[in-house]
């Protein structure tokens, strides 16, 4: 019935506990309906129509404990995924107008105030001709906000703690540009990663497993050209580690075609 209403292709998802491509199945034709239904274990599920969009943005928002405290927002960031897993976030996102930032903040503020929320909340948004369309709401600190550790005046983690214990929120403006890249499946050589200038490596102490987020790397700076080159070098190192390819020394002159800041 839902497929008849929304049409195909569509995405069938579990309502809870879905992340990094888990708990969902793409239905491209009627033959795939039963396959997806059986794979996800039946009800309760949600079916979503495909959305046409140019890019995914996310907004990290934070609201304090008392009604008189300020609600704060970080700059919109642009996210890139592969195989349902976030691979990199670029902060701030390029080409974001004041109006677009304000519209995203208005959406988030409505959610925060309506639920009397306290702490950090993230909203993933499709940016397209229809405007901003919510893709996911995460009531917590979020992967796409990890860049704030080095790249913002106050990290999302510190502001979450400040909000929960009733302290004033810290400023959320970005310090230059940042690219955050996730470490997936297998960790690269820390020596090679940290040889790339302006790079910060965060590993979470998890065991290696295909498709698992083991940590993240943030490269930060004020020169967009140099930052793109460093980020592309890191992307190659991470891809080699994930696929099991032999790591090589990072090359600072890699063409930065995959990144736009």
Characterization of the model:
- By secondary structure, the protein is of the alpha+beta class.
- The chain is built from seven helices and twelve strands.
- The strands form two sheets. Strands 4, 5, 6, 7, 8, 9, 10, 11 and 12 form a nine-stranded antiparallel beta sheet that branches. Strands 2-1-3 form a three-stranded antiparallel beta sheet.
- The longest helix is centred in the last third of the chain and has 20 residues, at 224-243.
- It is globular and about 50 Å long.
- The protein starts with a helix and ends in an 18-residue tail after the last helix.
- The model is unreliable at 246-261 (pLDDT under 50).
Largest sheet: 9 strands, antiparallel
Rg, Cα atoms, Å: 19 Å
Low-confidence stretches: 246-261
Q: Provide mean pLDDT, rounded.
A: 91
Structural class: alpha+beta
Based on the structure, what is the oligomeric state of the protein chains? single chain
Count of DSSP strands: 12
Distance between the termini: 43 Å
Strand content: 25-35%
Shape category: globular
Please tally the helical runs, counting DSSP H or I stretches of 4 or more residues.
7
